[in-house]
Amino acid sequence: MIDKMTVAALAVGIAVLSHAGPMLTEWGENVTSENCWRGYPRPQMVRDGWTNLNGDWDYAVTSVTNTPGRPEKWDGKIRVPFCIESALSGVGRLLKPDEFLWYTRKIECDPKPGERILLHFGGVDFRTMVFIGHDEVTDVPHEGGQNPFTLDITDCVKKGENTLTVCVWDPTEDFVNSRGKQCFKPHGCFYTRVSGIWQTVWMETVPEKYIKSYKVFTDIDKGEVTLSFQGTGNGERGTIEIEDSASSAVTRLCVKKPFTPNEPVTVKLPAPVALWSPESPKLYNFTAKYGKDVVKGYFGMRKIEKRKDSKGVMRFFLNNRPYFMIGTLDQGWWPDGLLTPPSEEGMEYDIKVLKECGFNMLRKHIKVEPQQYYAMCDRLGILVIQDLPSGDGRSISPERADTVKRYGLQRQEMKEMMDDLQPFPSIVMWNPYNEGWSQPGEFLTHSMLDFTRRHDPTRLVNGPSGCWDWEGGHCLPKGWGWKDRVWTKHRPEGVCEAADTVDLHLYRGPDMFPVNDRRVSFLGEFGGLGHPVSGHLWKESKDGKGNWGYGGIEDTKTREGLEKTYLGLMEKVGLLAEKGLGGSVYTQTTDVEIEINGLLTYDRKVLKYDPQVLSKAHAEVVRRANDASIAK
Predict the structure, then answer these.
(1) d(CA 75, CA 64)
(2) All structural domains of the chain with their residue ranges
(3) Cα dist. 3→9, 15, 30, 200 in Å?
């Protein structure tokens, strides 16, 4: 059933959003203000004693130029954590760059000596100021729409009821922020913008001395895991208890060891060590105790690297075996929630479909998901290549000055993203740049790639994906088109190439860069076969015009034509895999707005392919790659 807020949103949204009529997923149809996003939002570090602040908030929109202060009157209710532009927010209104978006609600607090109250925001786009009563608790407004942030509000709250107010400004296109594929006027592969709160808001109470975060470093060859807990306090010791639930159905305590916050602790695991992979996603659970603070987490024992196979071809290796990555471009957009999935269950459905179709990887494209998503990838078993959301997709020229202006915030957001997602074993490669969007020139590009490699040595670094690779990929001369790409030479032996891949984009494709001694040849995007499904289109039309696929739609209008063409592409990918291709990314998991090249329709109600047929084809590609790359 659709509740009253959603009905109101659709009535408004029809006039302002980019589709001609309401489109809901089956999960969106069941969203209410009482049931939206109730799950624990940080599955890598779980505590008791937390409060979910999702649901109905009061909201108001004011001008940035004549607002004297916080609103005295409110425009209505908005459902958090859905952005104001989405139908599921209950508003369905486009926010303008010259407007502030305000939120307010009451929160109950019970401050006690020796405890701290933390307020968490999973994601707010773009600049955020937070107030408790009159007092602003953001010393510096938080900037960045992709990554979570936390505020200690202990000293600003009183016992009982407090007023929480949030003020957001979101320029979308007119600043240096990383906005991904959002734009003012959706077209092609750019979509409806997302403003304000779009991930879970929550509170928790912690002891004065507590664990803030942790990082995981695994060594499968030695059977060891090293954890580094970041915490408050001075030199006090805690204990970590690791449970062996990975190798059997019975959970048992296998290791107990002391640790000191801000210092690494290495733990030898009992043999046999259970390794994590898409085929066998085994996880170890642990409990960390530090004074009165108790957190529960998990880790996976896995090793990702590039190295040469027995024939001297540079390939991906997972857990010391050659591993062909076969996956989809996964943008994570939804017709009812936009960047916010309608529910955890809907989010999980996408991953399960990919697994059923025989994919072992997805490229999370120009978006950072809620952390529950990556925990699902860990649990279900699928590799993730994680993009940094770009700042500008309108130009692919590194000669533009604004690419340099954007670099500082871009680097900061890259670091925050890597730190926030570091413990998730499913993430195996970072991708800082896509098709030249907001990519600076050669020096700063190399600096970003090199920083990424040094900051997280547990993962690979994707070369500039699809464009502007000065170290053995391709570039676009000024004023030239895609067909006129200039192929570049690798740097001399001994001179740093920070990336681990040369990444080709080609529609329809497929094709590959020649194999080389330094980096894996990777096909970062290809395919994009368009297939419209009437009744499940963002933009319906009698003649079918207005919807498109990268690979066209003439020979894929029918389901039979679509399947035949797709299988033909996979046959070619298999041939490339035999020659040394390390992995491939098909565009894409779902339709998105007027793009109709998904395996699934935008509303997730129709799977366009027979999953068994796809799974068989993908298994054949992997077999051919394995036969050609027997490990030494």
Answers:
(1) 16
(2) 4-205, 211-301, 305-628
(3) 10, 20, 8, 20
